[in-house]
Amino acid sequence: MWPLSACLLLSAVGVGSAQLVFSVTDVVKRTDCNKTVILPCFVTNTKENNINVMFVTWKKEGKRIFSFDGEKKEFFRDPAFLSANLVSQVDLPKGVASLMLNNTEAQVGNYSCEVTESNREGETRVELQDHPVVSCGEEDTPTPKEKCGTWFVPVELAVIVVLVFLNISLYLAQFSLIALKYEIVSQKKMGIIIAAIIVLVVAVVGTVLFVQGGYSAQSQAGLGLIVVPAVILVLFQYLMFGIVFDSLSAATCALLCLQILGYIIAVVGFALCVSACPPSHGPVVIAALAIMAFANLLSLAYVFFMGSSTKDHPRPGKAVEEPLNELQSDVICEKYTVVDTQWP
Predict the structure, then answer these.
(1) How far apart are CA 238 and CA 176, in angstroms?
(2) Which of 22, 67, 294, 308 is the most buried (most CB within 10 A)?
(3) 20 and 45 in contact (C-beta within 8 Å)?
């Protein structure tokens, strides 16, 4: 009886020693700002400390997506998970079998990590979930240094879109005013109209991409389409001043400089926002677009009042030229009249 009990006890101990033990993580939360996602898998009772006896398999919903054979140094990757890789191949003998994926390939769902060390094996499971947040430092942030959150909060997003279309509207209002009061060459007018339509279409496309939210390439491209082409509007302003006034005055130069300053700040803010999530420099873009809108409003008012004054009262250059032209015409006519009277 005693020998039988002893054999059963030793068998139970042997079975227990053949099972790998894991540090369990039930859920991993992914945000739009994560460039990569790490699925944890930590074995706490490795013994061999030899990568040649290690074998790791990762599965999603029971389907193998990644595996590593330590003896052959061979990898397997599912075509849908080509970015899959071990976090640290060097630390695998110490039990670190965590998997790293690009955010674009990390699909929400249940994953399993199977690790074999020589004749011992074990398995652990982890669930990947989407978790939208608006700022870092929350309790469920994976690591203190990791960037997290949606890219722009809804208020900032809405203000940027409103300011963009406000700028375009002010330019169109100014062009309409000038077209009604001044004669513009038809080719130049058609060119300005076509360019304005292009800017408007680009702004609409950029807005559609931008408002999708999330720290994605589409949203970044959308913000770029909103900000960068705004330089065309600055050129429009220069052309419209040229139509109304003979030369740029100090006031018109100041208005153009203010618009250029706003545009430069907007581009710098865009560059800073693209490199951060959440964008800590979102207010820079908003302030820059507000500066441009303010300059456009002043330009519209300046063209309306000063342009009317210029049209109603001839400019100094023209006021001097016209009497001279009339005097020359009178002299020529009188000369020919004298010649006619002397003809027999």
Answers:
(1) 15
(2) 22
(3) yes
Distance CA 109, CA 128 (A): 5
Report, as an integer, the average pLDDT of 266-273.
Answer: 87
44-56 pLDDT, tens digit per residue, is: 999 988 999 999 9
Contact 103, 37 (CB under 8 A): yes
* Domain boundaries, given as residue ranges, for the chain: 20-130, 154-315
Nearest to 68 by CA among 109, 26, 98: 98
Q: Domain 20-130 belongs to what topology?
A: Immunoglobulin-like (2.60.40)
The pTM of this model reads 0.56
Closest CA to 296 of 269, 258, 268, 261: 258
| 296/302 Cα distance (integer angstroms) | 10
Tokens of 121: 């094996």
Using CA atoms, how far apart are residues 98 and 41, in angstroms rounded to an integer?
Answer: 4
Q: Tally Cβ neighbours within 10 Å of residue 221.
A: 15
Tell me how far apart the terminal alpha carbons of the chain are, to the nearest angstrom.
163
C-alpha–C-alpha distance, residues 115 and 99, integer Å: 12
| Separation of alpha carbons 81 and 78, rounded Å | 5
